[in-house]
Amino acid sequence: MSGIVSGWPQALLRLESLSVLIAASAAYAWQGGSWWLFAALFFVPDLSMLGYLGGRKAGAMLYNLAHWYVLPLACVAWGASGKAPSVLATGLVWAAHIGFDRALGYGLKYGKGFGFTHLGAMGKAHRDA
Fold first, then answer.
1. DSSP character for 61?
2. Which parts of the chain span the membrane according to its record (predicted)?
């Protein structure tokens, strides 16, 4: 076992992620959130790639932390209590971003390098494989 998904399961995971993008975006729209704010926050989780300045393992750890569904879902749960609508909006945008990335094949990273993800090798890693 390589720890990398391929074939039909990979396609299902990517479709699942597309569903998360659509559902989180729809919930954001239903909440009446500002689309300017949505656009401004959408790629903020990608700042976690700066962790790669500290090496492959540190980069993978920081990227994975920012692209793990648990944290935005915690924001959604807290925000849905009705006391923190901005936290709810942030969590929905964050979840949409993760769904977008994974639908495109940007999975959780392995310490071997940025192109080695649970959804398969990408870029140079894919060409070299």
1. H
2. 61-80
